[in-house]
Amino acid sequence: MLVRKMLRDIGKNKVQFAAVFLMMFFGCFLYSGITGEWGGMKKHFDDYIQSQNLADAWGFDTVFSQEELSALRQDSGVDEAEGRMAVPMGLKGGDDIVLDCYFAETNNISKLYIREGIPFDSSRKGVWLDASFAEENHIRVGDELHLTYQKMEITGRVLGLADSPEYIYGVRDGDMMPDHSIYGFVWASPKILPDENLFSVNQIAVKTREKESRKQIREILAKPDLTVIQAKDHPTVSMVQDEIKQHKTIGSAFSSAFLLIAVMIVMTTMHRMLKNQRTQIGILKALGFGRTKLLFHYLSHSGIICFCGAFTGCVLGYRLMPEIIYPFMKTVYVLPHWSGYLPSVYLLLPVFCTLFCVAVSFVICRKYLKENASECLYGEENVKRTAHLPKICRHLPFSSRWNLRDVERNRLRSFMTLCGILGCTALLFCAFSLYDTFRNLSDWTFTKQQDYECKITDLPDEEGQKELLLRTDGEYLMEGMAVIQNGKKEKEVGLTVPESTRYIKLADSLDTFTRIDEGIALSKKTADSLGVKKGDSITWKPSGDGEWMESKIEAIIRTPLSQGIVIMRKAFEKNGGTYAPAAIIGVEPQKGFGGYEKECSISHQGELTKGIDSMMEGMIMMIALLVLGAVILGGVMLYNLGVLSYLERYREFATMKVLGFGDRKIQNVMIEQNVWLSAAGILLGLPAGYGLLVYMLSTIPDSMDVPIYIRGISWLFSAAGTLVLSWLISLAVSRKIPHINMGEALKAKE
């Protein structure tokens, strides 16, 4: 009997229980889906770098001798060490193509993952090519590859197509998004060189037993200024780990919002149902049903609905979300396997969600089931307390005073409506603001902050450099790494040394720019991590240089792509630094580059902006998710509360109709209250949305800084969109007013 009663109760309160089901479904759908996505990425990433024996650290120098390599291999703290010669090369016939070429005798550390062809073998005169690059350029195993370096050409047959654990996130310097059509890697045997005497080791890959491998390698080689990158700082590791952290944070935040709303709806639904069934409870107790049996009966209402919603959402989320997100992720990262993975503990998610909702229902049920049968049948129900309004409200119209009293009497329902409006506004505002911010990032970075049209690297000889400077009306740019002393620790950051601020401007904010003379400019993210401000002094040095410098921070700047130190050439040389230009920046020459396209690597402004535009594709997906979440959250929440409000005030509306109030008047009274709560929710939701935007941007990798930019129309759209949604739902619910049965409503016992 109680089972049939439970089904009838759920049917009578189908709107409220449907809202519980949907909120629980979407909460678990997002949580299990995003968790399965980042869990799968983490598992396959960890398995990949472990199976391919990714190096713990890389050392860079002009040349490493065989004695130094032997010293590394014989040290007790080092498991393995390999030497290689790394040279950036071009491809004959491909003007913009850059290939990082590695000439090595072994490949036991950071091993290639062979997709097609034979494993790496230094005894074979051939090359192993980046599989993603080969796919984009339609190169197959067995094809001839003609590599160029300045005026030297090397020809080799493609013996294998491979992925490298060092190129999971493979981008050219200065780019934000990978472009496999113009950038990749090549591994080859030194035997392929025109003269094997050209082979010299300028890069080492090391597997160590200690976490702090940078200091260890420098001590073994007795080179305190050696440039060493640890695995945790390598882009292939840091970018993936930051991406996983970002998705983990977003998934938890979104899911918590939906689950919290589900619990709040459970509270109001159980309160209303138990209150209306006071007489039924008394009859059931009189018939011999004990308190425990009735308690389990009423807990089953919320328990079954919550479990069904949570279980369905958990299963579908894990199955569908990774397939939705991974297509974009594959354009950024190269992993051999992509599939979702949900740790076994997360399979208990539906159980935990159900138990939590049942615990909330238990607290409510105890209150209504503690009375005996006679008290339930003949005792007076709790009447609504009288809401006394301030004297100033006496001059308000009747509808306003009536709504104020209703809000005061039904605080929980009003509070939940406010929360629904707040959440809807916050999600909409965050979505529009994200779109504005990333749309502005491209224009601001490459037209206002970086005002050059082309960037030339792999520079030719001195005569060629002079010619390029004339052709591009350009200037030199030095880029590298610097080490900052931070107490007893050292922090490695980027170093940019321009000749002037003609092409690279120093931005205080989106709209203001500054300049520096004798001191340095520090990026905002670096300054925040060090806890320093404008006017402070720091001790630093370029990586690989033994001269420590103490410089005053003349400016804290916003720079999206390179976080670290900016210092002018004159000040750098005055402090004893050796200026070694890595690039020439300038305008596109009208007469072309005079044949230097084949000798140098040239990045054009259009290619630079393409990286951010590609990033926008991923942002569009996130924005669509935010907007969809806002509509679902706001729509389900507001409709549920609107119906609940209508049912709770059913008798009052009937009384108003008897007193002569027309249907349109009563509808306006109902809509007016929702408009008030919507306005209050919007005012609170806009700053909440801004906080959510700041929170989401804080999950972006430390190597990037994205200044917030919000158009005025985004504020308007967020507020107007929420208000229109609220008004439409209120209008839909108010259409029930003409169907009120006055006689039935006034005779029924509350």
TrEMBL record:
Q: Name one Pfam family in it.
A: FtsX
Q: Which domain of life is it from?
A: Bacteria
InterPro entries xrefs: ABC3_permease_C, Membrane_comp_ABC_pdt
The keyword rRNA-binding belongs to this UniProt entry's keyword annotation: no
Q: Which UniProt keywords apply?
A: Cell membrane, Membrane, Transmembrane, Transmembrane helix
Subcellular localization is given as: Cell membrane
Q: How does it sit in the membrane?
A: Multi-pass membrane protein
Which positions, given as ranges, span the membrane? 15-34, 253-274, 295-321, 341-365, 415-435, 619-647, 674-696, 708-733
Question: Which coarse location class describes where this protein primarily resides?
Answer: membrane
Q: Which PROSITE patterns match?
A: PROKAR_LIPOPROTEIN
Start and end of every ABC3 transporter permease C-terminal domain? 253-372, 626-741
The name of this protein is ABC transporter permease
Q: Which organism is it from?
A: Blautia hominis
